[in-house]
Amino acid sequence: MKCSIIAALPLGIVGLGIALIAPMQPAIAFGGAGGLGECTTFETCTAVAFSSTNALTQYTFSSVGDGYPIPPSYGPGVTPFSYLNNQQTTSPVIAGAPPCLNPPCAVDSFHSVATARAQSDFAVNRASADTSVGASGTDDNSPVAIDDTATVQILTVAGANSVWRDVWTFDTSGHFSATITLDGHSSTETTNGTFPDTYDYSVSSTLGEWFYDLDVWDVTNLSVSEDFETGGPTLVARLRDRTGASNEQRPSFESALALDFDFAPGVSYVVIAQLGVQSRNGREIDLYDTAQLTDVAVSNGAELSALSGHDYLVTVPEPGQGALILVGLAVMATQARFRGLRRP
Fold first, then answer.
1. Could you tell me the residue range of the domain that residue 190 belongs to?
2. Cβ–Cβ contacts within 10 Å for residue 257, how many?
3. Is 184 exposed, middle or buried (0-12, 13-18, 19+ CB in 10 A)?
4. Which of 93, 103, 252, 315 has its CA 20 to 30 A from that of 73?
5. β-strand pairing of 269-280 with 199-203
């Protein structure tokens, strides 16, 4: 069985229409076409970090009069400028759609941009999407000619996905706990597009959405479940945080998700985390410095081995131990100071 995450990363662009980003489904995360960290079976998935970004600026000129001058690099009908960037890497991945692919553009042309960033590493997801304003209206070049008007619609879209997958094993039974912290902000711009003075327009509705998913699967003990009705990995932990059907309009947001599950030796646990954002028509969604797996702890002195080689464990003083260390350092400093005063 071949499996890949790439099939589950929606690009947000379907033809000339726009599809909102959506989290991957469990079956797609382990199966489907593509070449992102292939799995020969459920039990043998590879560790991989993958980022996907897309950006689109779309200009539609309709009802174009015979005397209307189409700006350079545009044409009657729909003129989309888009850029996709999908990479299996831990480096930043950026997609930007410029307003004009063949400069120089006319000074009085229509300028809107869309930019998306994503970066994936084991235990960390980063993603942001920023767009210029979208608009709809009439461009009137009077008195150049009798029929010198055109209906102009402008659409901007940016989307980013950050995904990592790893395989964990433990040398004994115990309990795993960790915290995933998410924080970000959303803003709306209504004047960050550059349009001709002859363009009488209204600003299009903005949209911003994001989601974060993390699943932990036992791929050694397969079972029939709601996720895999014909048999597949057994879900042992699942976290969800997202805007849902509502439009993200909070200036800032933050949350802390608790990841907890019991583990057993001789079992392979596939961990899949995905962060996705999308903005449209002047919206910015920024979760680039967020979605980090922190405060990792395992009980019974168990050793966590990761297929990626990443060290998820962070040594933190036990409760009360940090205070004792500070007291000890203070005592040592005081004794040293007194010894210095006693010296002739």
1. 6-316
2. 16
3. buried
4. 93
5. unpaired
Res 8 pLDDT > 80: no
Tokens of residue 174, six digits: 């115990």
In a domain, 42, yes or no: yes
155, 58 Cβ separation under 8 angstroms = yes
Nearest partner of 58 among 145, 134, 166, judged by Cα: 134
In a domain? residue 324: no
Angle at 179 between CA 243 and CA 264, to 5 degrees: 115
Provide the token pair at 34.
């593509």
- The dihedral through the CA atoms of 125, 209, 138, 15 has a sign that is positive
DSSP three-state, residue 42: coil
**For 48-57, how does the pLDDT look when each residue is reduced to its tens digit (9 = 90+)?**
898 989 998 8
Taking Cα atoms as reference points, which of 99, 173, 102, 176 lies closest to residue 134? 99
Q: Is the peptide bond before 99 cis (omega within 30 degrees of 0)?
A: no
Q: How far is CA 169 from CA 199, 208, 294, in A?
A: 61, 38, 18
Flag whether 334 is in a domain: no
Helix (H, G, I), strand (E, B) or coil at 322: helix
Highest mean pLDDT among 65-69, 133-137, 335-339: 133-137
> Which residue, among 256, 187, 243, 237, has the nearest Cα to 211 in the 3D structure?
243
Identity of the residue numbered 72: P
- d(C-alpha 257, C-alpha 239), whole Å: 7
pLDDT > 70 in the chain, percent: 76
For the ranges 78-87, 161-170, 243-252, 265-274, which has the lowest average pLDDT?
243-252
The tally of domains found in the chain comes to 1
Q: Assess if residue 341 is contained within a domain.
A: no
Q: Which of 9-23, 30-44, 272-286 has the highest mean pLDDT?
A: 272-286
